[in-house]
């Protein structure tokens, strides 16, 4: 997971949760709450807990600014967001590939359903390429470049409504702890 800090008056900063060292994990748990386990801290990060996002970003930021104090890093709640990294997008794609296999609707509907991951991705271009790979596997291009309604993904937005890929869409708003490898 990537914690993105978008201050109103400064440069955007990205803090890679996967880079947290063991010694830093101890600091994070003690700063958030002495009675929280590391697993609970991770779960609260998945829930976009502002205290957890702040403390993790602070600890990572402190690497390059050792004199920084927690009181000096107090961003507005809406300045912090949790986004999926490339490895998490790949994990999501594995689940989506399994679920899209049984989808019988048009490519446009599949693309629309899969596209919801773009709001959750830190690297939107990577997520978009991943979606196109999934769609190409499900909806191969028609011979001689001909297109019909089920031949491949579109590049525009679809305004049609219809069935979703499955009752448990591969584009859920967050990965569960079991889905994540963090």
Provide the descriptors you would attach to this structure in a database record.
182 residues; mainly alpha; 3-stranded antiparallel beta sheet; 7% strand; elongated
Detailed description of the structure:
Strand 1 and strand 2 (13-16) form a beta hairpin. The chain has a three-stranded antiparallel β-sheet with strand order 2-1-3, covered by helices on one side. The N and C termini lie close together (7 Å). The protein is built from six helices and three strands; from the N terminus they run E-E-H-H-H-E-H-H-H. The longest helix is centred in the middle third of the chain and has 15 residues, at 86-100. With 182 residues, it is mostly helical. It is 39% helix and 7% strand. It has helices at residues 22-32, 38-46, 50-62, 86-100, 107-114, 124-138; strands spanning 2-5, 13-16, 80-83. It is elongated, with a radius of gyration of 20 Å.
């Amino acid at each position: 997971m990537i914690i993105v800090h978008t201050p109103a008056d400064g440069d955007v900063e990205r803090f890679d949760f996967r880079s947290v060292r063991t010694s830093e994990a101890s600091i994070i748990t003690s700063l958030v709450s002495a009675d929280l386990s590391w697993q609970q801290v991770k779960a609260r990060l998945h829930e976009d807990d502002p205290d957890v996002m702040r403390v993790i970003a602070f600890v990572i930021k402190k690497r390059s600014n050792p004199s920084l104090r927690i009181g000096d890093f107090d961003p507005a709640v809406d300045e912090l967001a949790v986004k999926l990294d490339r490895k998490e997008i790949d994990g999501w794609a594995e689940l989506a590939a399994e679920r899209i296999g049984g989808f019988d609707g048009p490519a446009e509907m599949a693309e629309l359903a899969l596209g919801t991951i773009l709001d959750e991705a830190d690297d939107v271009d990577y997520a978009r390429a991943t979606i196109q790979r999934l769609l190409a596997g499900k909806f191969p291009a028609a011979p001689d470049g001909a297109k019909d309604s089920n031949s491949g993904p579109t590049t525009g937005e679809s305004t049609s409504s219809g069935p979703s890929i499955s009752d448990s869409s591969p584009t859920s708003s967050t990965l569960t702890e079991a889905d994540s490898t963090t």
